[in-house]
Amino acid sequence: MSLHDRLKFNKGLKKKITDKNHNFFLFKKWLEQGGAKYPDLYFKKYSDSERGMHSNKKISPNTEVMYIPYNLLITNDNSSRYSDDIGSDLSNLNNSNLLKIALYILDTIDDDNNFHRPYYNILPTNISHLPIFWDSSVLDLLESSDFLRDISARKNMLANEHTSLCKLSNIFRREISLYDWLWARSIVGSRNFSININGISKSALVPLADMLNHYRPAETKWGYNDSKKGFTMTTLKGIKPRAQIMDSYGRKSNRKYLLHYGFVMDNNTEEDGTCEDDVLIEIPDSNSRKIYVNKDNFIDKLMPLLRQMNKNNNEFNNHGNENIISKRNEVASLLSMGNIARNMLLQFPKTYSQNVLELKKLKGFSKERNAINFVKKQKDLLLFIKKLADDMIPIVAFQDISDDEINRQYNDYINN
Is 71 helix (H, G, I), strand (E, B) or coil? Predict the structure, then answer.
C-alpha cells in the first residue's frame, strides 16, 4: 500500500494505527487481490465503532463505483459442517438463507487459512449498539415504550432458532453457544444483501459494500451483474470530492432501523413528506385491540375503530365502519383519540422536555442517545395526534361543515 493510500485511509483518525486498523489494511489488500474494484472510493474511520466510504474525487451520476467479484461474496450457497450435518431440514426453517450464512461464518471464523479470514477480521466483535444486547441501564431509557416488546420478540426468535439448530445438529449443539449465535445472526441480519444470480434469489454478505452507511433518498443502486460475475454499485446522483457515499437500507420506520441496525434517524421523513415512524396504540374497547399507527395513517386506521366504539343506539345502522357517522360521534371519537394519546404520554416516567434536554447532552450515535431519541419520537407522534384531536374538536362541533370538508381538514393537518 502506498503512503498516499495510507494517508487517505487514516484521514480523520485521531488515534495511532493499531492492530485493528492493520486488519483494515490487510482487508483492502485481500479485496484488491480478489479482483474488487473501487478506484474512486476510500475508507474512513470515525471512531472504533463507526466507519464509512468516501469519494476521492467528484463522481458523476450513473458511475459504477464498486465491483465485488462473486468469489469474495458469502452467500447461502456456502456450505458448512453444520449445514451439511443438518441437511435438507435446514431449508424448512424460517429465514433459512440467512441461517446458512451465519452457520458458514461460525464454522470458518476460527480458521486462519479460510479464504474470508481478512473479511472476518474487520467484522465488529462488539455489537452492543443493537438493542438485543442492551443491558438494563439502557433498556430503562426506553421508559414504557412498546419497543421493549420488539426487543424481547427478536431475542426470543433468535433463541428459538438456536434451539432448533441444536436439536438438528449435535455438532452445532456442542460447539455454538447462544451468544455465538446471537452475534453471527445479528451480523448477517444487519449486513446481508438480497441479490439475484442467474435468475435465482440469494442472500449474500458483500465485503466492502456493507460498510456504506444509510441515507434516504438513495444515492446508489446495486445488484448482481451476471455478465460481469459480480456485485456492482452505481451512483444515482453526483457525489462531491471527499463526501461520504451512502446506501439506502430501504424505506423503514425508526423501529426497524433501531432493532435491526442499531441507529435512529433524526429526520426519517421521506421526500414525499410521509414518515414510517409508528407507535402501538391500544383501543379502550371490549376487545382491547392493539394497532400500530403512524402520522400518515392514524386517521384511516384509528378513527374507524373509535367511531364504532362511540356509536350510540341511534347510530348502529347508519354507516359502514370507516365513514364519518355523525357530528356527535366524530367529536366523541376525537375526544377518545386525544385521551388515548394523553394517557399514553402520562405513562412515560419522563416528560418530552426532559428527553430534549437529555439529547442535547449526548453526542454521536451512542445506544443511550438512540434509546432516548426513539422514545422522544414516539412522544412526538402522540403529541401530534393529541393536538390534531384538540384542534379539530371545536371545528367539527361548532362549525357548519360537511363530512368531505372534515376529511379534507384532516388531510391538510397531516400533510402540513
Answer: helix
